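Page 37, continued from 36.
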């Protein structure tokens, strides 16, 4: 896909070509959260002002000196914002919390749209902690995602003050997860719907969701949500 991006000078075109070649179903839409041909490098600023550059350096910091960096806060892909306005369910997938999930959430407009939607907002909890989340409980993941969407540590003029429950209302947990599910703390955050999904033990990465059980759990959630919407419409007539 990297070659296609260079050839077409467009990430969107490269994704489209890859989707066709890979025979990804046409109803499956893959959108980059940032659509640009510029080279962007993930970075973070520590509390003491130190700037770390590069995903690997954030996850696996070294003692080496860091190059000077120019802070860039790109705008999100307009197509992503449009989809967020219209989807029936928003799912925060598994992944590296601070170098994969949160960077896509801190962009301007993302938190505003998600908090305004009255739809399913599902967090898929990881099965095990990694170097970025050592010692984290489920509520810590919720706090980190809330802070990212609120841009809590960004420019004061861009900060939001939304509650965790405005971003997440359902938590999926793989059975036998190594991450503590602190139900009382989740309740204090306004999250009461915690669903345990059957899991598998992957010898390389640990506990993961059983694919069929995960699909069924998401389908059941969406069906329940759609029925509640229909019942709500009937009650108001």
């Amino acid at each position: 896909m990297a070659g296609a991006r260079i050839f077409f000078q467009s990430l969107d075109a490269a994704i489209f070509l890859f989707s066709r070649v890979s025979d990804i179903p046409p109803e499956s839409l893959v959108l980059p959260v940032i659509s640009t041909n510029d080279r962007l490098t993930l970075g973070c600023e520590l509390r003491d002002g130190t700037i770390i550059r590069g995903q690997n350096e954030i996850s696996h910091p070294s003692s080496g000196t860091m190059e000077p960096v120019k802070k860039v806060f790109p705008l999100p892909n307009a197509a992503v914002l449009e989809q967020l306005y219209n989807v029936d369910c928003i799912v925060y997938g598994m992944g590296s919390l601070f170098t994969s999930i949160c960077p896509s959430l801190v962009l301007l407009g993302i938190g505003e749209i998600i908090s305004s939607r009255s739809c399913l907002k599902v967090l898929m909890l990881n099965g095990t902690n990694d170097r970025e989340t050592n010692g984290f409980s489920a509520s810590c993941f919720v706090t980190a995602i809330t802070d990212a969407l609120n841009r809590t540590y960004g420019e004061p003029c861009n900060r939001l003050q939304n509650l965790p429950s405005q971003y997440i209302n359902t938590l999926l947990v793989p059975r036998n997860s190594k991450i503590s599910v602190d139900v009382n703390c989740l309740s204090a955050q306004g999250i009461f719907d915690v669903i345990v999904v059957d899991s598998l033990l992957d010898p390389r990465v640990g506990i993961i969701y059983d694919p069929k059980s995960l699909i069924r759990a998401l389908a059941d959630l969406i069906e329940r949500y759609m029925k509640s919407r229909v019942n709500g419409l009937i009650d108001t007539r």
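Residues 1-30 form one domain. Flag for discussion at group meeting. The two ends are 51 Å apart (CA to CA).
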